């Protein structure tokens, strides 16, 4: 075999190896990416989970313990949703970058808080140094259906600038609750 033929084969092998690496990266991203679930799909998954553990379970806990734990978690989730008014309707996650001790993921969330709809998009930068893990929210973008209230716009801008998701959800819960109270109060004064 002459050198030009060998070189052509080696080039083809390198090309195929690069294509395999690219496809493997895409496959990993697809495996980590969350999909959108409706409330009905979540309930169906919970029911199938319950049914799955009704059969013979050879673990450390009995099926009745697992069912009791699942019911307790469902009650807790229901309480948190009623208490805060937050309901997430969709979530997606995509890994943007992954190196040895650093990962960047893009998240998209949408949901409702009482009667207000919201959408969030942000990146999570996770870095691991020895025995310490740090997570930072970056590139936060918030869309909130609250009309054109300038105070809310200023608040949202401040939250986006600081990347403080906890403050956003706490404030959104209070704000949405007071919006509902205000609208129900004005309904009493409305002339029919």
TrEMBL record:
One protein family per Pfam: CENP-P
Key words of the record: Coiled coil
- In its keyword annotation, does this UniProt entry include Coiled coil? yes
Q: Which GO terms describe its biological process?
A: CENP-A containing chromatin assembly
Note the coiled coil stretches, chain numbering: 6-33
GO CC annotation: chromosome, centromeric region; nucleus
Q: What is this protein called?
A: CENPP protein
């Amino acid at each position: 075999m002459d050198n030009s033929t060998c070189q052509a084969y080696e080039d083809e092998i390198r090309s195929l190896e690069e294509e395999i690496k690219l496809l493997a990266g895409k496959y990993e991203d697809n495996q980590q990416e969350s999909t959108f679930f409706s409330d009905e799909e979540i309930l169906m998954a919970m029911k199938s989970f319950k049914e799955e553990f009704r059969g013979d379970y050879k673990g450390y806990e009995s099926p009745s313990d697992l069912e009791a734990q699942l019911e307790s978690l469902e009650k807790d989730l229901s309480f948190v949703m009623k208490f805060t008014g937050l309901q997430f309707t969709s979530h997606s996650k995509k890994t943007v970058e992954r190196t040895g001790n650093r990962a960047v993921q893009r998240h998209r969330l949408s949901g409702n808080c009482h009667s207000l709809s919201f959408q969030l998009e942000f990146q999570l930068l996770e870095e691991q140094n020895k025995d310490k893990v740090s997570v930072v929210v970056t590139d936060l973008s918030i869309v909130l259906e609250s009309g054109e209230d300038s105070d809310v716009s200023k608040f949202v801008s401040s939250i986006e600038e600081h990347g403080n998701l906890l403050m956003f959800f706490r404030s959104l819960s209070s704000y949405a609750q007071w919006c509902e109270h205000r609208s129900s109060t004005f309904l009493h004064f409305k002339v029919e």
